[in-house]
Amino acid sequence: MAKTLNATYDPSKKWMPIEEGKYPAHITGLSTREMNTRAGEAIIVNLTYVVNEAVSEYEQPLWEMDGYDYVKDSSGNRVPVMNGNGEQATGSCSHLENRELKDNGFFIFTDTSSASKNSRYFTLLENLGIQCEDTDGIKRLVLLEEEDVVGKPVHVTVKREQYVTAATKDLPLEQQDKRTTFKVANVELWKDGPTLSQEELEEDVPF
After folding, report:
1. Domain boundaries, given as residue ranges, for the chain
2. Is 100 exposed, middle or buried, given 0-12, 13-18 or 19+ CB atoms closer than 10 A?
3. Count of CB atoms within 10 A of residue 201's CB?
4. Which residue in 10, 73, 59, 23 sits closest to 183, CA to CA?
5. Which residues contact 60 (CB under 8 A, 6 or more apart)?
6. Based on the number of CB atoms within 10 Å of its own CB, is 96 exposed (0-12), middle (13-18) or buried (19 or more)?
7. What band does 207 get if pLDDT is binned at 50, 70 and 90?
């Protein structure tokens, strides 16, 4: 006789994909590493983010799904789910709550000849409200530390990226295994969002 398991299935809770967009989150971690690039020595700053519960108030467009894949029409376009008014239906983004996100890193080029390439990092500092010393229009960058950013409320812009798995990257194109991931492309302060203390961060760790 079959045994009852401590597991359930709720058909009302349908899997929802992530969609590109801007979402409320908190910075929960920071790491730095040095790298020698074609443009010279660089410091790479990586941030980790966790999506806040306020995301349940956000909505995303709904698309026809075949399991975990989008249904495509004959032109290769995603097929929208339509509501009774002939418009594309939307659903709550609550499935993103507590999801951990990462970025591709913000590069700081330490050689003055590559200073113009530091605009993205400088924009990050500006967006996070971090001040830099200004001498005759030249900004002296600062290196972010955990105490500067961890716990800060932010809005993160999430973008879809495609990559080839390491195991198949040297194979012919038609044999390569391509995967999709989502990375944070831009960060801005969430001005009305709550700043989290270290204790709150430890309580909200999503694993």
Report:
1. 21-54+93-203, 59-91
2. middle
3. 16
4. 23
5. 16, 19, 21, 90, 91, 93
6. buried
7. very low
Q: What is the dihedral of CA 90, 95, 100, 103, to 10 degrees?
A: -10
Provide the mean pLDDT of the chain: 91
Band the pLDDT of 206: cuts 50, 70, 90. Answer: low
C-beta of residue 183 within 8 angstroms of C-beta of residue 161: yes
Q: Which amino acid is at 189?
A: L
* pTM, two decimal places: 0.86
pLDDT in tens, 60-94: 999 999 988 899 999 999 999 999 889 999 999 99
The helix or strand, by DSSP H or E, that contains position 199, with its residue range, turns out to be: helix 198-203
The one-letter amino acid code at 103 reads D
Q: Cα(181)–Cα(53) distance, rounded to whole angstroms?
A: 22
Picking from 197, 86, 190, 116, the residue whose alpha carbon sits closest to that of residue 150 is 197
Reading the block at residue 152, the tokens are: 């800060």
Please enumerate in sequence order all residues whose Cβ is within 8 A of that of 71, keeping only pairs 6 or more positions apart, or say none. Answer: 63, 64, 65, 78, 79
Residue 93's CB: how many other CB atoms inside 10 A?
A: 22
